[in-house]
Write a structure and sequence with these properties.
Blueprint (H helix, E strand, L loop, with lengths): L2 H4 L36 E6 L3 H17 L7 E6 L5 H11 L4 E9 L5 H20 L3 E8 L2 H6 L1 E3 L2 E2 H26 L1
Parallel strand pairs: 1-2, 1-3, 3-4
Antiparallel strand pairs: 5-6
Helix pairs in contact: 2-6, 3-4
The structure holds 5-nitro-6-ribityl-amino-2,4(1H,3H)-pyrimidinedione (INI).
Length: 189
């Protein structure tokens, strides 16, 4: 198992497999794959406050990743909500506004002693998936679900990377892919 798959980080598009939306001259297959060009994209980030220290680190990672990939700060909107449970609500409303290419949901659900964990983590995941499906806008799952605070810190800028940054990169890729897929309709009509 590679390090990337072990930590469930972001698996970026391979440079060699740059999208070939037009039929290649060599007769090979067409390939549709988003790129990591964040220029000109409008991205919203919904970040929970519960376990605020961890969420702030996720948010920092996401903002930094967007800036490094060309998304202008004035095209990035940050929305804060109480906890991970509320992330899908805000993400769905932002998606329905029609103003965003992709939305990143950030939160930290830490098991600790609370039986709340399963409900909050499950609903955050389900709600984000349903909102993306229903609105057709990519909504990325940047919610950490861990047993301990230490594990959450390791995944928010520690030795296992930053889930916020990973989700922001996945948001750029999916926003780009969505544009390619939109163009498919034009092409095949
Ligand atoms: N919210 C989190 O984001 N992380 C948690 O670990 C958590 N726990 O453990 O309870 C949590 N609970 C709050 C929840 O997200 C809602 O804000 C609250 O239930 C009000 O709807």
């Amino acid at each position: 198992m590679s390090a990337a798959s072990k930590d469930a980080g972001y698996a970026p598009p391979r440079a060699a497999a740059a999208a070939r939306p037009d039929a290649p001259a060599d007769g090979g297959h067409r390939l549709l794959e988003g790129s990591l060009d964040g220029q000109g994209l409008a991205i919203a980030i919904v970040a929970a406050r519960f376990n605020e220290h961890v969420c702030d680190r996720l948010l920092e990672g996401a903002l930094d990743a967007l800036a490094r990939h060309g998304t202008s700060p004035d095209r990035v909107t940050v929305v804060r909500v109480p906890g991970a449970f509320e992330v899908p609500f805000a993400a769905r409303r932002l998606a329905l506004s029609g103003g965003y290419d992709a939305i990143v949901g950030l939160g930290a659900v830490i098991r600790g002693e609370t039986p709340h964990f399963d409900y909050v983590a499950g609903e955050a995941a389900r709600g984000i998936a349903v909102a993306a499906e229903e609105t057709g806008v990519p909504i990325l799952f940047g919610v950490l679900t861990t047993e301990t605070v230490e594990q959450a810190l390791e995944r928010s800028g520690g030795k296992h990377g930053n889930r916020g940054a990973d989700s922001a990169l996945a948001a750029i890729e999916m926003a780009r892919l969505a544009r390619l897929l939109d163009a498919e309709g034009e092409r095949t009509r």
